[in-house]
Design goal:
By secondary structure, the chain is α/β, with parallel strands linked by helices. The protein has a five-stranded parallel sheet, with helices on both faces. Helix 4 links the parallel strand 2 and strand 3. The chain is globular and about 30 Å long. The two termini are about 30 Å apart.
Length: about 140
Amino acid sequence: MERNSGLRHWLRLPFLVRTCCRTPLGRTALRRRVIQNHVRAKAGDKVVDIGCGPARILRWLPDVRYLGLDIDPDYIASARRTHGNKGTFIVGDTKSLRDDPRFKDADIVMALGLLHHLDDEEAAHCIRFAYDALKEKGRFVS
């Protein structure tokens, strides 16, 4: 039997989720906390960001070697305009770029807010890409 109380109840109300989590302030605070508490990149780390969008999270990362990957060329163009040489921004997907040597030996691979947008096959490609990209003892954050 499923309970309809507590946080789970409130998260079922789409207007509340949109208001709290999808407002600019909510997204900004949530992204910053995820980067600080879960990604925990250190200066010099190689970070691969699958589904990077316009790479908004880059502002909360220390001086890392950042590679952002997204299928949307408009997002990549925005990331390049905004961040310039602070990172490398590539249009493509995890299936077509799986053997690209730029994505090897990463300290951290992240796919934040991405997997729920993918079907099972795409999600499997994403996770395999992350596994192949990580160096030994690297971390996947999703």
